[in-house]
Amino acid sequence: LYGLLSNAVDASADGADIVLGIDRAADSVRISITDHGPGMPFAPEPNGLSPGPSTKRFGTGLGIPVAFKVCRAHGWQLTFEAARPQGTRVVLSAPAS
Length: 97
Prior knowledge:
The chain has 97 residues and is α+β, with helices and mostly antiparallel strands. The chain contains two helices and four strands.
């Protein structure tokens, strides 16, 4: 979660809100992180393990592939969505048990 939150902070303007959400259903828990940055210039590939593009000066592009791998290892699902009017929403869904 730290890496995903860090990405949201980096993508947002100084002082911009980052919205965290937690929803629980009977069989799952969803954690969402929504920033109001410019949005992602690419669609993250859940099965891709090669580095993606990085907008950070010293970024390696490995953060999102590693996050997908960790989520998959724990039986969680990670999705990225466009937030409106701008930004990105990251949703981590995990079994409630």
